[in-house]
Design goal:
- The complex is a heterodimer.
- Chain A is α+β, with helices and mostly antiparallel strands.
- Chain A contains 3 helices and 5 strands; from the N terminus they run βααββαββ.
- Chain A has a 5-stranded antiparallel beta sheet, with helices on one face.
- Chain B is an alpha/beta fold.
- Chain B is about 40% helix and about 30% strand.
- The chains are: A alpha+beta, B alpha/beta.
- The interface of A and B includes residues 35, 41, 97 and 112 of A.
């Protein structure tokens, strides 16, 4: 039987730990390696931090709904929020080779998501709000 | 996250356990900033018990190292960082900024 679980967390930084524990438990259950589990955990943590910081613009403004679905080939994690539309594609990658003093750090979380997951998709609808989908293929 | 700070003659040892994320990183930032204000400039961060670090956690250490650079003294070094936690520094391109030692004693010997 394929896994499909939905949970809702308050949009604050205190939720990051229980969210990570939830994600780790499922990723481990699906047989991802320890480095893959860490990558998935990081991507979701960064996504949730961005929702709080950028979509909601602060803590305790709204909730984060997380739906985790196992498909035949992948783990698909969907994050929903009701904040401002926040499209990761609008955030340029940081230049990680530029001198430290001039380096701009905005976008590091999105950069992590893109590097650590196989797919990062953003969608917005007036009814559902923001929907960020993170996909990790099994055995990738 | 747990943070224990022990001050020695020429360095401060920061023993951290648990997660360093957007919830916990501000506490670490506050502690290091306060120590720098008190004239403490060398830090050994014991990462043996750290199980996760986010980009905001990494940036906390980067900003405080930049703070030290501006004062032309001191450094932050890490001890016992696990491969998974180190991978975050590597991915962000900040692994060149810091020295990473296998254990606390080796890190202390660097001062």
């Amino acid at each position: 039987m394929k896994v499909s679980v939905t949970r809702v967390y308050p949009g604050n930084f205190k939720s990051l730990k229980p969210i990570s524990e939830f994600i780790i438990e499922i990723a481990e259950h699906l047989g991802f390696s320890s480095s893959e589990v860490y990558a998935i955990q990081t991507a979701v943590d960064e996504a949730c931090s961005n929702i709080i910081d950028h979509a909601y613009g602060g803590e305790n403004i709204g909730n984060i709904k997380i739906r985790v679905v196992e498909t035949k080939k992948s783990l698909r994690i969907m994050l929903f929020d009701q904040g401002k539309p926040f499209d990761p594609d609008d955030i340029p990658d940081p230049d990680i080779h530029s001198p430290l003093e001039v380096r701009r750090e905005r976008g590091l979380g999105v950069f992590f998501m893109r590097k650590l997951m196989d797919k990062v998709d953003f969608d917005f609808s007036s009814t559902e709000g923001n929907k960020l989908t993170l996909v990790k293929y099994k055995g990738s | 996250m747990e943070l224990i700070i022990t001050s020695f003659e020429n360095y401060d040892l920061l023993q951290i356990a648990g997660r360093i994320d957007s919830y916990t990183a501000p506490n670490i930032q506050k502690a290091i900033k306060s120590l720098i204000s008190d004239g403490r400039f060398n830090f050994v961060v014991d990462m043996c018990e750290v199980i996760y670090i986010s980009s905001s956690g990494i940036l906390t250490f980067v900003h405080q190292q930049l703070n030290l650079n501006r004062q032309n003294q001191g450094k932050i070094v890490f001890a016992g960082t696990s491969d998974l936690v180190y991978s975050g520094f590597e991915l962000a391109g900040f692994h060149f900024l810091f020295e990473f030692f296998d254990d606390v004693q080796s890190a202390i010997d660097g001062f």
